[in-house]
Specification:
With 284 residues, the protein is an alpha/beta fold. Helix content is 42%, strand content 15%. Strand 5, helix 6 and strand 6 form a beta-alpha-beta unit. The longest helix has 20 residues. Bound molecules: phosphoric acid mono(formamide)ester (CP) and norvaline. Phosphoric acid mono(formamide)ester binds next to helix 2.
Amino acid sequence: LAANLKSRPDRYRTALAGQTLAMVFEKSSTRTRVSFEVGMYQLGGIATFLSSRDIQIGRGEPISDTAKVLSRYVNGIMARTFAHSTVTGLAQHATVPVINGLTDLLHPCQALADYFTTREKFGHTRGLTLAYVGDGNNMCHSLMFGGPKVGMNVRVATPEGYRPKAEIVAMARQDAAAAGTTVEVVSAPRDAVKGAHVVYTDVFASMGQEAEATVRLKAFAGYQVSPELMALADKDAVFMHCLPCHRGEEVHADVVDGPASVVFDEAENRLHVQKAIMLMLMHR
Ligand code: CP
Ligand code: NVA
């Protein structure tokens, strides 16, 4: 559906005519906000941006009341929050679909766009390997969940103390076993990257972890995706990053700005993939 939306957007111009998406943001965003807003507009609907600084959840109105009230006005809710339980709480109490636009635990829309981008670049995904180097964060978790669903192996390299959550690894491994793929967690970046088709990294300090930035920069020494590390990957390997990135920290500028980088395709594909998500959830 995302591929159809990308190649023939004109066919879907009125697919969500008259519908409204509420976009709740507790954190900053460039890609998520703009791609959902533009996506909704391109489908004939509108999106309304709600910063937690301005709406009543910021002053303590319960998430359950917020979910029930928004459900009386809008046809769908997208939310970017700190606690994952805020998004699941919205989903539990809303009577309209709720889309996770990033929590401290997961970033599923980005992972969907990234696996869609992988399919575009290689023509398929089955049997390919994604290597994730860096922090075992929300991005890492969602990539581990997504890999088995598209027949890909996922190899994660993080320092001790910054591993992905054990329960997420266990769930992803169950999915992988059923799909005939693998999910591995190692320490050395080179062990993860060797022969990989997609090399992925994300910031060392995520939103909400700004105070840990200096400590983390030290802890992640040796975890930069450098041209030397990329050279260990498959000869046709692509470099991915959800963005925003910090050149010189988790990735060398020559990699993110180099020929293997597909970071702006990933960003574009957020639009097409999320339009597909909204159509699947909201089309009547
Ligand atoms: N990748 C991503 O979600 O970017 P934003 O924080 O700009 O939305
Ligand atoms: N891990 C990052 C992803 C940003 C899109 C964060 O949560 O800040």
